[in-house]
Specification:
about 160 residues, single chain, 6 strands, DNA-binding, alpha+beta
Length: about 160
DNA sequence: GCCAACGTTGGC
DNA sequence: GCCAACGTTGGC
């Protein structure tokens, strides 16, 4: 099974790429996803070793800051069962978890931040979901070509 | 802070 | 099963 490529969004004031680096072993579970499409990508398709463009959203400016790697495949997101958690979902139980998360590991910071603005101006990246108007999916697949192109932009 | 776009909910 | 109302996302 060939490696897949992803883009994952995080709000840097909630959890930034640097925060990930500072976690023990530079890895963390990606809790709080409450969107079925994003869940399906994580639960059904993300494999250990897949590479992730780490994207900072809802900040100025938004864009890709570096690369992470899937360190553990999907398992139930326990924060959905915690009434005190921001992402508590009373519909879910341990027998019927509904929401899942993966673990990601910090891999490499870009030499240079690649802004959303730049992504939008790059012809080869015009089909990326993140540049589409109104696209809100927080976990999205990217093609290998797109992944490589963004990395290239971030490495010089 | 605004608001367009989107996903979800719930009445019918 | 439709769709209006609502809440959220996230760029600007």
């Amino acid at each position: 099974m060939p490696k897949k490529y992803w883009l994952m969004k995080s709000e840097p004031n909630e959890f930034s790429f640097d925060d990930l680096k500072l976690e023990p072993d530079s890895r963390a579970h990606w809790d709080g996803v409450r969107n079925y499409q994003a869940r399906n990508f994580m639960r059904n398709e993300m494999k250990k070793g897949d590479l992730v463009l780490f994207y900072h959203s809802n900040c100025d400016p938004p864009g890709v800051v570096g690369i992470a790697e899937v360190a553990k495949e999907a398992y139930p997101d326990h924060t959905a069962w915690d009434p005190k958690d921001k992402h508590f979902d009373p519909k879910t139980t341990k027998d019927n978890p509904v929401w899942f998360m993966v673990e990601v590991k910090w891999k490499k910071a870009f030499k240079r931040f690649v802004s959303l603005h730049e992504l939008k101006e790059t012809r080869e990246l015009k089909d990326m979901k993140v540049v589409q108007r109104g696209q809100r999916l927080s976990v999205q697949p990217v093609t290998r070509k797109e992944f490589d192109k963004v990395c290239k932009m971030g490495s010089k």
